[in-house]
Automatic annotation (TrEMBL):
InterPro entries: Frm2/Hbn1, Nitroreductase, Nitroreductase-like. It is found in: Cytoplasm. The lineage of its organism: Bacteria, Bacillati, Bacillota, Bacilli, Lactobacillales. This is Nitroreductase domain-containing protein. The keyword Cytoplasm applies. Keywords: Cytoplasm, Oxidoreductase. GO terms for cellular component: cytoplasm. Residues 10-177 form the Nitroreductase domain. Its main location: cytoplasm. SUPFAM superfamilies: FMN-dependent nitroreductase-like (SSF55469). GO terms for biological process: cellular response to oxidative stress. Residues 181-200 are annotated as: Disordered. It comes from the Bacteria.
Length: 200
């Protein structure tokens, strides 16, 4: 098993994606779903949800749904660059759609009213941990990925296309595939500006 610190360094935003990975769709799905299943959540609420779009379904998300949603929001002279970016996501093997079940949050708020205001925040944190864990699991398998947030502009179209339950709120999209071009070197801020310790 890869050392956690090494794996954290391996996980990068990969934008040049291809469709040449060694795992089957079944194996990729199993890896993703098991990783999300083991991700922590407040009160063990397990409100994170995921749908994996493979092949043509992933291409539809990027080249049709997202492109159509952004066309009216993007200056005409900038839209070709936007299309090219979306096409890079579509070139991968698939895309993970991460959702958070709002019914779970409301149930917690009703059952534990003392923390009602916190449950939406904790749900976002839980979903973020599921995303990060999944990203690292893909990296360990040699699969590149990046994280996108085109919600809420694509929410209605995604819900209609894939019959998403009304109480599932889209939180992010993670296109993944083979690493056709590695990420550039990563710059780090000064540690002293970010971290400190006390012993009393």
């Amino acid at each position: 098993m890869t050392n956690l610190f090494d794996l954290q360094q391996t996980r990068r935003s990969i934008y040049a994606l291809g469709n040449h990975i060694n795992l089957s769709e079944e194996a990729v799905s199993d890896l993703i779903f098991k990783t999300i299943k083991e991700s922590p959540s407040a009160f063990n609420s397990q409100g994170s949800r995921a749908i994996i779009l493979f092949g043509d379904a992933s291409k539809t998300l990027w080249n049709d749904i997202t492109a159509n949603a952004l066309k009216s929001l993007t200056p005409a002279e900038n839209f070709p660059a936007t299309q090219a970016k979306l096409a890079s996501f579509a070139n991968g093997v698939g895309t993970i759609l991460f959702f958070e079940d709002q019914a779970v949050i409301k149930g917690l708020q009703a059952n534990v009213p003392l923390y009602a205001d916190n449950f939406p925040v904790w749900a976002e944190q839980s979903n973020g941990m599921a995303q990060y864990a999944t990203w690292m699991a893909l990296a360990e398998a040699g699969i590149g990925a990046n994280l996108q947030h085109y919600n809420p502009v694509i929410d209605d179209a995604v819900t209609a296309k894939w019959n998403i339950p009304a109480n599932w709120k889209l939180r992010s999209q993670m296109p993944f595939g083979s690493i056709e071009n590695p990420a550039d070197a990563k710059d780090y801020n000064n540690d002293t500006d970010r971290f400190t310790t006390y012993d009393k």
